[in-house]
Amino acid sequence: xxxxxxxxxxxxxxxxxxxxxxxxxxxxxxxxxxxxxxxxxxxxxxxxxxxxxxxxxxxxxxxxxxxxxxxxxxxxxxxxxxxxxxxxxxxxxxxxxxxxxxxxxxxxxxxxxxxxxxxxxxxxxxxxxxxxxxxxxxxxxxxxxxxxxxxxxxxxxxxxxxxxxxxxxxxxxxxxxxxx
Length: 180
Description:
The protein is of the alpha+beta class and 180 residues long. It has helices spanning 14-27, 79-86, 90-105, 137-162; strands at residues 32-34, 41-49, 56-63, 68-76, 111-117, 120-131, 170-171. It has one domain: Yope Regulator, Chain: A, CATH 3.30.1460. It starts with 13 loop residues before the first helix and ends in a 9-residue tail after the last strand. The relative contact order is 0.19.
C-alpha cells in the first residue's frame, strides 16, 4: 500500500491495512489495545489519545464489508456538568444539546450521536471516517487530531454553558458499537 492516489472505489487489503495502522500507532508512540471480540470488525483498536497523555479513547475500526476506517470516540457528561445541566428547564437543555450538535457538525468532518438518559444528554459519540481511496498516514493522523479537537470544543461549550472548568466529559472506554 503506497501513499500514492488509488482509484476511487478501490478496497485496500484488510491485513495490510491492519499492519499499516498498527505500525503507524507504534511509531508515533500511541498506547493502544486490540479489541478481539468485535464480530462486526476486521480489526478494532482502542487508542489512548493524545500520545503520551492519553486522556481519551479513540476507537479505530475497519468494519466488515466497508471500504473505510472508522474513528469513533464515546464521551459521557462529567459529574460537574451533569448536575447543573439536569437542573435546567427543558428549553435550555434542548438549546445546549443543539449547540453541542452544531459544534460537532461544524466543518462537516465529524458526526455526533447523542444518548438521552433521565431527561438529559448523558453521553454522545463522535465519529469520522477515511475511505480507502483517500487513506494515507496524513489522513489517518489528521482524522485522529480532528476528532479529539472536536471533543475539546464540546467541553469548551459545556464549560461556557454550565461552568465546571477543569473537568470536562470523560471517555466512555470500550463501549462503542455501530460505527457509521
